[in-house]
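=== RUN LOG ===
request id: a7f3
mode: sequence -> structure
chains: 1
length: 205
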Amino acid sequence: MRILGLKRLLCLTAATVFLSLSPAHAAWQDDAKACENQLKAKQVDQAIQMCTQAISGGAPSEEALAYTYNLRGISHALKGNDDLAIQDFGEVLKRKPNPGTYVNRGSVYLKKGSTDLAIQDFTQSIGQQPNPQAYMARGQAYAQKGDADRAIGDFEKAFSLGGEPAVKSLQNHLKTHGKYSGTIDGKYGPGTRQALEACLRDPKC
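=== RESULT ===
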């Protein structure tokens, strides 16, 4: 079961990392901003190039360097360079452990089939700050392991934190796969839970 794909998980977390950063070095700032803009434009090859230039040129602080590694890690992940993405996210976590990057790296581990490593990262993210992305992603990891009870528990925590938008996303997914026939109302009731349980029993859902 995959309610959220890698791309969506990465995009959800990317915007929340290091928003308070004020880089002092103009050259680094220009390169890092160019990387960010290219990433937003989905030009991942150019984003990787600009982030690499920023990293090589010297960042004004460890936090700034972590920010640049995070952007390049997301770019590598979207391009399918999983091992390089994991390396870059690891560089971020050495310098600035944060919930978003744990979700990012865990999402790549999950894509690679390294489910236990993914669960470890999602759990680290939740331990730092409970967030719907980490609970949703960990629920998917448990679902892949066949642990439906833990999966449902994590999904329900994600829905409680994410509110109606998270539940509507689930309901749309379930309806697309023929498991839910109710209204897309963002309310997690018995009908939605039964549909979720049916989805977890179906490898194609």
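=== NOTES ===
The two ends are 5 Å apart (CA to CA).
The chain has ten helices and no strands.
=== END ===
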